[in-house]
Amino acid sequence: MARKSGSDGKKTARILRAAATKLFAQYGYAAVSMRQIATEVGVQAGALYLYTPDKQTLLFQIMDRHLDDLLNAWAEESATQPTEPMAQIEQFVRFHIRFHLDRVDAVFIAYMELRNLSPENFELIESKRRQYEDLLEAILRNGGKEGSFSLCDSRLSAYAIIAMLTGVTTWYRGDGRLSANNIEEIYLCMVRGLVSHSGADQPSSTGP
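Above: the chain sequence. Below: its structure as tokens.
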């Protein structure tokens, strides 16, 4: 896609991130060159440096934007959060599955390419990942205190639930035997089992 005369920088930067996201997800960050990204965008390789100083920064920008979108979308979703802990868990499960199924490539990069971030960028991304994990842990912890949930460890339970829900993106196909709504219901059933009193024999802890 060639850059059009008069197009603004923000639009071109979005096109650049989208092209890089596609290529990183398909071939892996290490295997993709800036020249390949430029070809995908439809510009000369040198033009890319008007929008990003290097490939490492581009990878960080993709991950950072993905996590910002995730946190902002949850803030909007949870503005009308129910008060009952199990209903809060159900809201979180449905939100997480829907958000991530719409962004499969970005999700893949956010998890699989962490190893390619510089130490400084890794810390920034991990901080935002922890913010999201904290949101679920707070729901689990409060549910445990109210007696609605029975968990061996609220922090590890949050890790496990998020990992399980995110894993849907690795195998789900829209033309398969299960619809996205079916998937939501099945995963809700499994998460309810994990947090219910019948799912754990030990009291909830505060976690590490």
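The domain at 55-199 is CATH 1.10.357.10 (Tetracycline Repressor; domain 2).
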